[in-house]
Each structure stands twice: as structure tokens, then as C-alpha cells.
Design a protein that fits this description.
single chain; alpha+beta; Butyryl-Coa Dehydrogenase, subunit A, domain 1; Butyryl-CoA Dehydrogenase, subunit A, domain 2; Butyryl-CoA Dehydrogenase, subunit A, domain 3; 3 domains; four-stranded mixed β-sheet; four-stranded antiparallel β-sheet; 11 helices; binds flavin-adenine dinucleotide
Length: 402
């Protein structure tokens, strides 16, 4: 396999970087912005910049023009995703919309749904959230109980979702609901596209360990959803939900490798600039070994990502192998953050606002946020079950009752 970009792709990257240097919002370059808790303000910056990307032809690059894309190549899409991840802190707002919702609609939605929603996702007009988890349905997602009853040309939805990232900012939600409680739990589910401004939707932010409220609980009380917002067939929503989860695991990796490289580069600076017993810690053989190991692990992840991308470049759907990358990036980020804590010692506990905090508390913030990495998008234990059963063909996990 040739792992270098061809000259056309290299020229495309240079052209995009040039555009980016002239158009990136000024706020995007400040370290302060990256740990600001003002989510509403960040969402507005994101929407404006996403519109610029769309107008300049840098959104939905490999998707068809009839859905607002550019009919370009997947490699061009990957280049733009990588560069935005490195240079632009608000990439996460489109992680769900562009990374999960649009590819799910492209592969499973109706023509009308693709034409109505994908251009608005690409232009930043619509931000989406993912309403899957419930108080009694996380790892065992098929256990969910939010119900939808069909009445004429609409569904009436009742129930509760939880841990819904950016639900307080979202315009729409991909919602998995139970439409037939009389059949096996995987069989009676359906997948709806819900307008978050519908009467009966209540969003309550939940404060997390970082002190920010990034995710929410959402309540649905007699919320009406038009029948044409059903994706796929009624009671076949499990298949669509799995499609979304496969995209979540594989597409996120594209933006995570450059982010982890950035974290590692900052870690190397931190180790070089921190002294212990009168010498820079980068000279300590223990820390040199630790950092070298992190770099090797990041290279392993990069190569695994190339393997996943090769599958996509062949036009195939992402498969259960995406779980390997999910375990790897989440645990690798935690190891990087833990190494930073060791290097800073007690200073690592200082938060934003303290004059002695490194990087104005960004390390402390990122360490705390990284705890969620091995839970969000499916826990490490669940990814191991998927790899065991669906990649290695081992016998089924006996704890889960399907
Ligand atoms: C930062 C963050 C953002 C999130 N964003 C969203 C979002 O936008 N939308 C959304 O729908 N959800 C979101 N989630 C929820 C996330 O998907 C769930 O938390 C996750 O799937 C785990 O479910 P749970 O919390 O119910 O834990 P549980 O399923 O109750 O699991 C508890 C523990 O038991 C273990 N366990 C469970 N079953 C098994 C088994 N069969 N074998 C071995 N171990 C098992 C788990 O690994 C875990 O350690 C988010 C979570 C976090 C932390």
C-alpha cells in the first residue's frame, strides 16, 4: 500500500491551508477559546465558519452535488478534516452532524431526506445531536423504552434520553424509539429525525466532571414527528442505529489522529520546559521512554486508521474493526493526559484562572474530559465484546442477554 499522498492531493492540501490561513476565525487561534465554557458563543462561531467552508467548496467534499457536496474524492475530504482538526477548535460541532448524521442519511435515508437535510448540515444551518442513550439503555442500547406511537401521518413520542452531547444547541436529533413493544427488543425499534423545537421537547443540561455542561437529558412529552421523518422502515431502526455507530467509530478517528499528535507535541514542549532536580525533564530517561512509547503508539493508531480508510476508499461500509481504533484512541489520550499530570506534579490540579496553571488550566481540563473518552461512543468493554465476537469470531458474551 502506498501511504504517501499523490501530487494532486498534496496540492489540494496546500490550497486548503492557504484558504484556511485567510479565513479561520480570529478566536480560533487563542488557547483561551479552546477551554471557554461558552458553548452558545462557540456554536455561533462554528455556524458562521461552516457557512464560509460551504461557500468555498470545502464542505461535503466527496458527496454528490445534488446534496450540497462537491463530488470530490474521499482523500480530499480526509485532508480537509485533518487540517480542520489541527487548526480549528470547533470541529466537534460538525462531528455529529457531518460525521454521523449525514453519512447515515446518505446510505439509509430517502431522496427527500437527503435533499432536505444534508445541504443544511453542510452549510452549518443545522446542528444535530444523537438521542440514543437512556437511563436504562446505554451499552445495552436495544433496551431503550422511549416510545413512538403512529397516529395517522405522524408519530407521538414519549420518554427520556440522557448524555445527549450538544443537545442544548442542536436543531435536530437522530432519535431511536420503540415502535413495537411486543417483539424482541432489537426488532421493535425505529429511527426518527426530530426537530428539537417541536412542542413537548425539554432539554436540561448536565454538568460534567470538567465543570462544563456539554451533554444533556432530553424529555419528550407527546412530541409529534411527521411520518416522513422515519429513516428506513418502521421497526427496522436497529440496523440504522448500527450504521450510525459504525460511522461514529471510524469517521471520528480521522480527526482524532491529528488532535493526538498536537497533544503529544504540547506534551514534548511541557517536558522540555519543566525542570526537576535542576534539569529539564526531557533529559530524564524515564520520561524520554514514556514519550517515545506514546509516539510509537500514535504511529500504530495512524496505520490502523489508514487500513480503515482503505476500506472506505474502496467504497465499502465501515465494519466492526472501527472498535479497534475507538479503544486505541480513547486509552491513548488518557495515557497522554496522565503523563502530563505526572510531569506537572501538584501544579496539574490548577484550573483555568489560576496564575500558576500551565496553559491556563487546559491540561487539567483535558485530563478530566479524557475520562469520558472510554465511555462515549460505546465503552471499552463493549468495544472488546464487538472485536471478540464480530472480528475474531469468538463465542458470544454471556453477560449480555439479546
Ligand atoms: C462525554 C460523553 C458524551 C456522550 N454523548 C452521547 C450522545 O451524544 N448521545 C448518546 O446517545 N449517548 C451519549 N453518551 C452516552 C454513552 O454512549 C453511554 O454512556 C455509554 O454507551 C455507556 O452506557 P451507560 O452510561 O448506560 O453505562 P452502562 O451501559 O450501564 O455500563 C456500565 C458499565 O458496565 C459495563 N458493561 C455494560 N455491559 C457490559 C457487557 N455486556 N460486558 C462487559 N461490560 C459491560 C460498561 O462497560 C460500563 O463500564 C455520552 C457519554 C459520555 C461520557
Amino acid at each position: 500500500m502506498n501511504l504517501t499522498m499523490n501530487p494532486d492531493d498534496q496540492a489540494y492540501r496546500a490550497k486548503f491551508l492557504n484558504w484556511l490561513s485567510e479565513n479561520i476565525p480570529a478566536e480560533g487561534t487563542s488557547a483561551e477559546a479552546k477551554i471557554s465554557g461558552d458553548w452558545c458563543a462557540q456554536a455561533e462561531i462554528f455556524r458562521k465558519f461552516q457557512r464560509k467552508l460551504f461557500d468555498a467548496g470545502y464542505a461535503g467534499i466527496h458527496w454528490s452535488k445534488e446534496y450540497g457536496g462537491q463530488s470530490g474524492t474521499l482523500m480530499q475530504h480526509i485532508i480537509v478534516t485533518e487540517e480542520l482538526s489541527t487548526n480549528y477548535p470547533w470541529k466537534m460541532f460538525d462531528g455529529l452532524s457531518v460525521g454521523l448524521v449525514a453519512p447515515t442519511l446518505l446510505s439509509r435515508g430517502t431522496e427527500e431526506q437527503k435533499k432536505e437535510f444534508i445541504p443544511k448540515i453542510l452549510s452549518g444551518e443545522h446542528i444535530w445531536c444523537q438521542g440514543f442513550s437512556e437511563p436504562n439503555a446505554g451499552s445495552d442500547l436495544a433496551n431503550l423504552s422511549t416510545s413512538a406511537v403512529r397516529i395517522g401521518e405522524r408519530y407521538v413520542v414519549n420518554g427520556q434520553k440522557v448524555w445527549t452531547s450538544i443537545g442544548h444547541l442542536a436543531d435536530f436529533c437522530i432519535l431511536v424509539v420503540r415502535t413495537d413493544p411486543t417483539v424482541g427488543k432489537h426488532k421493535g425499534l425505529s429511527y426518527l429525525l426530530v426537530d428539537m423545537k417541536s412542542p413537548g421537547v425539554t432539554v436540561r443540561p448536565i454538568k460534567q466532571i470538567t465543570g462544563e455542561a456539554e451533554y444533556n437529558e432530553i424529555f419528550f412529552d407527546d412530541v409529534e414527528v411527521p411520518f416522513d421523518r422515519l429513516v428506513g422502515k418502521e421497526n427496522e431502526g436497529w440496523l440504522i442505529a448500527i450504521t450510525t455507530l459504525m460511522f461514529e467509530r471510524i469517521m471520528n478517528e480521522i480527526s482524532i489522529v491529528p488532535k493526538l499528535q498536537q497533544t503529544l507535541d504540547r506534551l514534548i514542549d511541557l517536558t522540555s520546559n519543566t525542570t526537576r532536580y535542576g534539569q529539564a525533564m526531557i533529559k530524564d530517561p524515564v520520561y524520554r521512554q514514556k514519550i517515545a512509547l506514546l509516539q510509537v503508539e500514535l504511529e500504530v493508531m495512524r496505520l490502523n486508521q489508514y487500513r480503515n480508510l482503505a476500506t472506505l476508499l474502496k467504497g465499502e461500509m465501515p465494519g466492526p474493526e472501527g472498535s479497534i481504533g475507538k479503544i486505541f484512541w480513547s486509552e491513548l489520550n488518557q495515557r497522554m493526559q496522565e503523563t502530563a499530570m505526572e510531569i506537572m506534579g501538584p501544579y496539574s490540579q490548577l484550573l483555568k484562572g489560576s496564575k500558576y496553571a500551565e496553559d491556563n488550566g487546559k491540561w487539567a481540563f483535558d485530563f478530566l474530559r479524557a475520562r469520558g473518552n472510554t465511555i462515549e461512543g460505546g465503552t471499552t468493554e463493549i468495544q472488546k465484546n464487538i472485536i471478540g465476537e464480530r472480528v475474531l469470531g469468538l463465542p458470544k458474551d454471556t453477560v449480555r442477554r439479546n
